[in-house]
Amino acid sequence: MKHLIGIVVSAVALGIAAWLVPGIIVGGYHLSGDGYVAPTSVSKAVTLLAVAVIFGVINTILKPVIKTLGCGFYVLTLGLVAIVVNGLLLWLVSYLAGDLKLPFHITGFVAAVEGALIVGIVSWGLHLIIGDDR
Questions:
Q1: Using CA atoms, how far apart are residues 44 and 62, in angstroms rounded to an integer?
Q2: pLDDT number for residue 34
Q3: Is residue 115 a contact partner of residue 17, using CB atoms and an 8 Å limit?
Q4: 19-50 per-position pLDDT tens digit
Q5: Residue 77 CB coordination number (10 Å)
Q6: Kind of pairing, strands 24-26 and 31-32?
Q7: How far apart, in Å, are the Cα atoms of 66 and each of 19, 54, 85, 110, 120?
Q8: Residue 69: is it exposed, middle or buried by C-beta count within 10 angstroms (0-12/13-18/19+)?
Q9: How far is CA 30 from the centre of its chain?
Q10: Which residues pair with 24 in a beta bridge?
Q11: Which run of H or of E encompasses 132?
Q12: Is 106 helix (H, G, I), strand (E, B) or coil?
């Protein structure tokens, strides 16, 4: 149940980041008789849930490795390099989502860093509200 709540929180945070940052594009499309039609709320929600799963897997696998290898940079910058690392990981998620044909795209580094900041803040706030035991 904890993992499911974490995925939903991440999906909500990604949705808010996409709403606030112009460089984060979340589509959702389906095929109709006339071709592709505008994304629906359900298709966008499914896209955000899928991207949240990818984001969770990437953070679980790569983030500890990066923190271990880049320990000196974290100390030297008093942890500010974490913002850049989170942005790059979110940008990687966008790349992988494109490979998986998910309609989720981040246009550049600045949008990725802004999105990572928003995802972090919103996730933190939602976990405070929900009362997660982590």
A1: 26
A2: 56
A3: yes
A4: 999 999 998 655 555 555 567 788 889 999 99
A5: 13
A6: unpaired
A7: 29, 17, 8, 20, 18
A8: exposed
A9: 22
A10: 106
A11: none
A12: strand
DSSP-assigned states of every residue in 42-74: HHHHHHHHHHHHHHHHHHHHHHHHHHHHTHHHH
Please tell me the least confidently modeled range out of 13-17, 66-70, 91-95, 110-114.
66-70
Contact 119, 26 (CB under 8 A): no
Q: Is the pTM of this model over 0.90?
A: no
Task: Determine the pLDDT at residue 41.
Answer: 83
Asked if 90 contacts 112 with a C-beta cutoff of 8 angstroms, the reply is: yes
Give every CB contact of residue 133 below 8 A, 6+ residues apart in sequence: 2
What tokens appear for 15 in the block?
Answer: 């949705």
Question: Alpha-carbon distance 106 to 110, whole Å?
Answer: 9
